[in-house]
Automatic annotation (TrEMBL):
This is N-(5'-phosphoribosyl)anthranilate isomerase. PANTHER family: N-(5'-PHOSPHORIBOSYL)ANTHRANILATE ISOMERASE. Belongs to the TrpF family. GO terms for biological process: L-tryptophan biosynthetic process. It comes from Streptomyces morookaense (Streptoverticillium morookaense). GO terms for molecular function: phosphoribosylanthranilate isomerase activity. Pfam families: PRAI (PF00697). It catalyses: N-(5-phospho-beta-D-ribosyl)anthranilate = 1-(2-carboxyphenylamino)-1-deoxy-D-ribulose 5-phosphate. InterPro entries: Aldolase_TIM, PRAI_dom, RibuloseP-bd_barrel, TrpF_fam. Pathway: Amino-acid biosynthesis; L-tryptophan biosynthesis; L-tryptophan from chorismate: step 3/5. Its EC number is 5.3.1.24.
Length: 204
């Protein structure tokens, strides 16, 4: 199971995610209380090391801004949360990033990973980063084909049920490992990773 801890802002956050065994860490460049600048993200990405995928999170920003921030911060993956079209994926593909397309699921419109040229599909709530889950139990929801990551309102208390019910390829959390908006808690990060791994092992 791929586990991403998102919205990290400090060295302590990164150390906690790496020590817990996260596979990816995210830095928000979109408008958000979690936003970091390129220099901070660069330091944090270097601290995370090569074993961990470093992800920049964008929402509705011009392609040139995405390009510049991604290059300046040294992140290895780009996560796009707005209505960015296939041209973003086409333009970023040659630059070697792992490309993540984030969207809110619409049960009547099944999603498929790779539809716009992405490597990973992230299914998130309509208001990303708000800690609100979407309705995972909607019987019309069909899990996407390919590699998909579940996000939106996850925490250590619900991630096990989500993994057992939906069997996503990965999970992503931000609010659910915070004591208040934008402030991560190392113990909550550890507990989240433990709960996700335990559920994934039990479902294997
Ligand atoms: O975290 C933010 O503020 C944010 C802003 C703009 C786009 C995405 C953002 N966060 C992403 O939201 C999901 C899940 O968040 P949560 O666990 O529900 O708080 C995660 O992928 C973040 O990268």
């Amino acid at each position: 199971m791929f586990i991403k801890i998102c919205g990290l802002r400090t060295a302590e956050d990164v150390d906690a995610a790496v020590a817990a065994g996260a596979d990816a860490v995210g830095f928000v460049f979109a408008h958000s209380p979690r936003r970091v600048d390129a220099a901070t993200a660069r330091e944090l990405a270097a601290r995370a090391g090569d074993r961990v995928l470093t992800v920049g999170v964008f929402r509705g920003q011009p392609l040139e801004e995405v390009r510049e921030l991604a290059a300046a911060s040294g992140i290895r993956a780009v996560q796009l949360h707005g209505d960015e079209g296939a041209e973003y994926y086409e333009a970023l593909r040659p630059e070697g990033y792992t490309l993540v397309r984030a969207t809110a699921p619409a049960p009547e419109q099944p999603e498929s990973c790779g539809a716009l040229g992405e490597d990973l599909l992230l299914l998130d709530a309509p208001a990303p980063g708000a800690g609100k889950p979407w309705d995972w139990s909607d019987p019309r929801f069909v899990p996407p084909a390919g590699r998909w990551v579940l996000a939106g309102g996850l925490d250590a208390g619900n991630v096990g049920r989500a993994v057992r019910t939906l069997a996503p390829w990965g999970v992503d959390v931000s609010s659910g490992v915070e004591v208040r908006r934008g402030v991560k808690d190392p113990a909550m990060i550890t507990e989240f990773v433990r709960a996700a791994r335990e559920a994934s092992a039990a479902s294997a």
